[in-house]
Write a structure and sequence with these properties.
Elements lengths: L17 E3 L1 H5 L5 E3 L9 E2 L2 H10 L2 E8 L2 E8 L1 E2 L3 E7 L2 H8 L2 E9 L7 E12 L3 H13 L16 E16 L2
Antiparallel strand pairs: 1-2, 3-10, 4-5, 4-8, 6-7, 7-10, 8-9, 9-10
């Protein structure tokens, strides 16, 4: 066993960082003494400003719906306007469930963007609102801007059959992070 390397056959393998004890090596014994790394992974709470900045910068959220004892979590692309999450999807299980129970959860996270295992996560409670009329075009314009896609020379395309534009009006937000 070399300095600083854990082995699977050592009884304390899963307890942290270990290195050979020099005192024991001098006696010809290969015992291991714990060497604890400083705790840089304390969970921090994000401020509302940090939450907003995080939500503005991300593109994929997970929406959690619950109806009749069934919980369904699904990823969606989204845009955030400071109050609501907007998305477009096709008719299916999530739309049917959100129509039946408008109380949903939105989760957005990122992991290890710095290569050290840091992460950030925001969880929000909110209400599903299906969009119609001018609200659909507002949502589509926000999504096009966020995803840097311009309209064609003919202008924006209408929603196809079975396509649903919606927003989730966020009512409770919390965020956490770990920086390592």
């Amino acid at each position: 066993m070399a300095d600083g390397i854990r082995t699977r056959d050592h009884p304390d393998h899963n307890r942290g960082l270990y290195q050979l004890s020099y005192r024991h090596r001098e006696r010809g014994q290969d015992s291991v003494a714990p060497m604890h790394a400083p705790d840089r992974s304390a969970i921090a709470e994000l401020s509302r400003e940090e939450i907003d900045a995080f939500l503005f910068g991300q593109r994929i959220a997970r929406i959690g719906c619950h109806v009749a004892g069934l919980t369904y979590v699904v990823p969606v692309i989204y845009v955030y306007d400071g109050e609501c999450v907007y998305s477009v999807t096709t008719e299916g299980q999530k739309v049917a469930m959100m129509r039946e129970n408008a109380n949903v959860c939105v989760e957005v996270d990122e992991y290890d963007t710095d290569g050290r295992g840091s992460w950030r996560s925001v969880i929000a409670q909110g209400g599903y609102e299906e969009l119609g009329g001018d609200d659909v075009e507002t949502a589509l314009a926000l999504l096009r801007e966020h995803f840097a896609r311009g309209t064609t020379s003919e202008g924006p395309r209408p929603l196809g059959q079975g396509v649903v534009a919606f927003r989730i009006r966020l009512t409770e937000l919390s965020g956490r992070s770990v920086t390592r």
